[in-house]
Amino acid sequence: MESLPNRTDLLRILAEISKDINSGSSQNISDDAVLTDSVSECSKELCDFYNNKYMMNTTSDNKDKSVLMFIEYPDDDCEKYPASLCGELFVDDTSVALTFVTKDTVFPMLSVRYINKKIGRLLIKLRNDQSKLLFSGYIENGSFSVLEMHICDVEIDTDDDSNKLNNNQLQYILTRLLPYSASIDEESKAAYSFAFSTISELDLLYKLCKDEYPQEIKESIDYYFQILFNTGVLFSERQHIQRALSYLLLINWNAYTLVPDMMIAGEILEAEFHDLQHVKKRILEIVAQVRHNKTLPRPILLKGPAGVGKTKLCKIIARILNLHDVTIDFSSLKDIEAITGSSRIYSNARPGMILEKLYSVRSANVALILNEIDKASFNGGHGNPTDVLLPLLDGFGFTDLFIEAAIPTQSILFISTCNDESKISKPLLDRFTVIDIPAYTENEKRTILENHVLPQTLAHMSIDDTQFSLSKGAINLLCSNYAVGPGVRDIEQYVERLVSHYIYEREIYGPHSARLSESDLMDILGPGNATTSRTLHVSPGLVKTAYYHNGVVRIVSVEAITREGNGGFITTNIISDIHKDYCRVAYECVQSSLLAFLHDFRTLDVIVHVPDDLPLCASNFLGNAVFAAILSSIDCKDISPDKLFIGGCDLYGNTYYDGNVADQLIAAIIEKGISTVYAPVGFSRHLSLPLDGVNLAIVEGLDISELYELV
To answer: Lower Cβ count inside 10 Å, N or C end of the chain?
Structure first.
């Protein structure tokens, strides 16, 4: 608690700040303001009405809220005083006091022992308005601690005094001056902000809350008011200035960080997401960083396939960090002006989306979700919207062209999502902390379906779990043959379809219970969506490999054949030039290998084919498999389908793994029944996944020829 100022200092402070309230003309606190014996004209019924309307909780449970003032009681018998009082503020040369009236008692003048220095200007304004006030709080140690203050005038004669504060304006000002003290919800807080709309009201708000604005914002506000109060301002210019002032004044620019609770954060993540332990751990590390530094972390990028819950996770991060969440969808943006706004010289000028989003929640303390930044489109000469993000993510702020003011961004947490990071420029990608969200495996989908999707869908449709259920076989079939996407959206759609079909049958045939089997599932949903797996005979030249890209693990076959020819090397169904180069390097490595010294490649043609489409990425997941496939074809050596090669090799046969994910890769390989993985030396160091009790062997080799001989 701050040290309590004495009454002399308090009066001096109030006298100084009263100058701002009176439009620059100093109004000394003189004998005219001396408290008389008259009591407030507020009726007892009015006091009771406003006490019931505004009173929240007046017990000491609210002590964590900011105290507005301490009111000193004249005797030690505090129990006779109520925890809410209605009266007026009085100030004279020797004291600051309040007089109150309740239903049964008129109290003598009560002295104010302490005033929160942030509300000094506000109290002068309320004194000048002669507003009738309702104070509520709690009684402790012979004084009344005021936590809430409301204006309880029945009506305001706007013709008589257009600048007299009403209660909505008072509550909004209190939330700006003391953001932690407000007992109102965010919706009410935004509604109160609409109480300031005219130029005179905005001017009043600025005078009362001037110290709460950052310096760069104050400079812009002062500039606009200086123009506005000059004569000869055009009507259109006046309209623009009023709109710009609304944005500048009604957004709370103060940066504050509410320290999140680690235990609550963990509980929220566990309740909302199944598995994804490495993702949850990374989020909790960020939360711990915020707790330690009391500042927001660097920008975050969540990358992964569609439907895995990236946007949902963005909102959960905002919830854990006690921030508003606002979203800008980059897939719909076509030019830079959508972010920066357009100059007011144009008739259709508008603010940028960042400013609009801050204004929508009346706060700059937000988690700004930049959704699908990899889908931002370049529209001719209008530029790419992601180009604006570079200085923004560095925390340098940016200038909105519509209000022509620099917007501070220190209190904004930027969280982005993308499906394909290769479409994001390297300078932009380097500014993010990247968190990879992988696709769900079939086992994870089954667990999510049973424990989350099905119960939530039944609850949403008001169906009891004793009335509708799915057999184990139906669940397995749904996850393997129908919901084959990387995320859970298709699971939600299929489960909703099944429950809707059950409700339809209830309407036709009457109430009954249903437990769907595999055949029931196929009758309702029709043919599945899973790709029919090809039956591959074990043949020389047939080798498996695996890759991880954009959250999805794929196991693909590499086929190689050799025939008499002229030393040609051909690749088919491999579109990427990078992947073709990796295959060529493996082919050259085979020629220089001692394992193939008996063969004259000048008389052989080698054809390498990959039946499945490959991603356009730079990772080398083909090299080792292509080497093994070519040698297998030459030696007529079969390689079992439960064996798999990963990683690449260079011209000298050195193996390497350049992927950035190993756990998800191995988890998918285990699920597909692979028993042995042949990998570059050091691959196991990338794993945090425990392999105890798992039927999988990882064989590592420094040289690809050595690795092949171990098969």
So the answer is: N
Tell me the pLDDT of the chain averaged across its residues.
Answer: 79
**Fold topology of 262-435:** Rossmann fold (3.40.50)
pLDDT of 102 above 60: no
pLDDT of residue 485: 80
Is residue 542 within a helix (H) or strand (E), and if so which, with residue range?
strand 542-549
Q: How far apart are the C-alpha atoms of 331 and 374, rounded to whole Å? A: 8
Q: Which amino acid is at 591?
A: Q
How far, rounded to the nearest angstrom, does the alpha carbon of residue 108 sit from its chain's CA centroid? Answer: 53
Instruction: Give the span between the Cα atoms of 138 and 484, in whole angstroms.
Output: 60
Query: Could you tell me whether strands 366-371 and 324-329 are parallel, antiparallel, or unpaired per DSSP bridges?
Result: parallel
Q: What are 689-707's pLDDT values in tens digits?
A: 777 778 888 999 888 888 8
pLDDT, residue 82, reads 63
Q: What stretch of H or E contains 454? A: helix 454-460
Q: For residues 411 and 397, is the Cβ–Cβ distance under 8 A? A: no
In terms of C-beta density within 10 A (0-12 exposed, 13-18 middle, 19 or more buried), how is residue 120 classed? buried
pLDDT tens digit string along 15-35? 454 444 444 433 333 333 322
Mean pLDDT for the stretch of residues 471-491: 88
Return phi, psi of residue 72, to 5°. -90, 125
Contact between 324 and 361 (Cβ < 8 Å): yes
Looking at residue 452, the DSSP 8-state letter turns out to be: I
Q: What are phi and psi of 441, to 5 degrees?
A: -80, 170
- What are the boundaries of each domain within the chain? 7-211, 262-435, 442-525, 542-709
CATH top class, domain 442-525: mainly alpha
Residue 185: pLDDT band with limits 50, 70, 90: low
The alpha carbon dihedral of 209, 210, 214, 216 has a sign of: positive
* Alpha-carbon span 429 to 376, nearest angstrom: 14
Q: What is the C-alpha separation between 169 and 196, in angstroms, rounded?
A: 7
Q: Which two tokens stand for residue 99?
A: 């007089």
**How many other C-beta atoms can be found within 10 angstroms of the C-beta atom of residue 648?**
27
* Residue 689 φ then ψ, to 5°: -75, 125
Sheet with 697-701: strands ordered across: 569-572, 604-609, 552-564, 542-549, 643-645, 676-680, 697-701
* First-residue to last-residue Cα distance in the chain: 73
Right CATH for 542-709 from 3.20.20.70, 3.30.1490.20, 1.20.1260.10, 3.30.230.10: 3.30.230.10
3-state helix/strand/coil string of 141-156 = CCEEEEEEEEECCCCC
Q: Contact 123/11 with Cβ under 8 angstroms?
A: no
- The tokens for 251 are 């957004």
| Phi-psi category of residue 560: left, alpha or beta, with phi > 0 → left and psi -120 to 50 → alpha | beta
Residue reference for tokens 């530094």: 293
Question: What is the gyration radius of the CA atoms in the chain, in angstroms?
Answer: 35
Q: What is the pLDDT of residues 144-163, one digit of tens each?
A: 788 888 887 645 444 445 57
**Using one digit for the tens of pLDDT, what is the confidence trace for 267-325?**
889 888 877 888 899 999 999 998 888 888 899 999 988 888 899 999 999 999 988 89
Sorted by sequence, the CB contacts under 8 Å of residue 636 that are 6+ apart come out as 540
Q: What is the pLDDT of residues 62-86, one digit of tens each?
A: 444 667 878 777 666 566 666 666 7
Q: State whether residue 297 is helix, strand or coil.
A: coil
Kindly report whether the global pTM for this prediction surpasses the value 0.85. no
Q: Which residue has the tokens 């990899």?
A: 374
Amino acid (one-letter) located at 539: S
Q: Report the sign of the C-alpha dihedral through residues 12, 16, 21, 25, in that order.
A: positive
